[in-house]
Amino acid sequence: MEVVILADPAAVGSHTAELVARRAAETPDMVLGIATGSSPLGTYRELARLHAQGDVTFDGVRCFALDEYVGLPERHPASYALVVERELTTPLGLDPANVRTPDGSAADIQQACLDYEHALAASGGVDLQILGIGTNGHIGFNEPTSSLASRTRVKALSQQTRMDNARFFAKGEDVPTHCITQGLGTIMEAREIVLVAQGEAKAAAVAAAIEGPVSSMCPASLLQFHPRTRIVLDEAAASGL
Ligand code: GLP
């Protein structure tokens, strides 16, 4: 695990964007694992800036999102499908046919989970996975107590996560109760991982992930077993180390 501590969120965004841009230049058809939430937004905006300047192209890049809410109305602005479209597909000029999110409105949700695993495997697997971290140490929506070997599946969201994410919805009760998320076992198969975290609110989760025991109580701690993971933090997120 390589830990990079930078002065502020802007530095986290440019450092991580440069890493992604470098990998896209090395492997133009790379499979990029994408996270939603606010943590990687600085990275995505910096990538959009580099793309607008003509410094990087994502024409052949294939993307798989980590997770999606279950049961939101189609094209709900907080659905991760729409967040991905807004923050990545459009500004980075990705081919929409190359961008996938789990299908949270599928009639057969278990089948949708299996289909997602099959699509990931058929792509050849994730070359670079971008992750955020929840205040409770979750990655994707793998909440504390998630099986360390888990695969893409339906999960109930914890009360804390529903509260953390209420800011994206008009009313607290609009936050879905369930989601589809890649499992911890699925995420660990990525060949390279970069986790970004900013702000004091993430300090305790970051410290548990990096310095605590590997435990399902802090799902991100499993990354200690990953051979090629970089954790990019601003000083506030690193303050518990
Ligand atoms: C969200 C997402 C995760 C994200 C994490 C942190 O709910 N499911 O993929 O990394 O929780 O969110 P944020 O970056 O908004 O703090």
TrEMBL record:
SUPFAM superfamilies: NagB/RpiA/CoA transferase-like. Keywords: Carbohydrate metabolism, Hydrolase. The keyword Hydrolase applies. It comes from Nesterenkonia lutea. It is an enzyme of class 3 (hydrolase). This is Glucosamine-6-phosphate deaminase. The lineage of its organism: Bacteria, Bacillati, Actinomycetota, Actinomycetes, Micrococcales. HAMAP family: GlcN6P_deamin. InterPro entries: Glc/Gal-6P_isomerase, Glucosamine6P_isomerase, Glucosamine6P_isomerase_CS, NagB/RpiA_transferase-like. The active site is at residues 67, 136, 138, 143. GO terms for molecular function: glucosamine-6-phosphate deaminase activity. Gene3D superfamilies: 3.40.50.1360. Pathway: Amino-sugar metabolism; N-acetylneuraminate degradation; D-fructose 6-phosphate from N-acetylneuraminate: step 5/5. Its EC number is 3.5.99.6. PANTHER family: GLUCOSAMINE-6-PHOSPHATE ISOMERASE (PTHR11280:SF5).
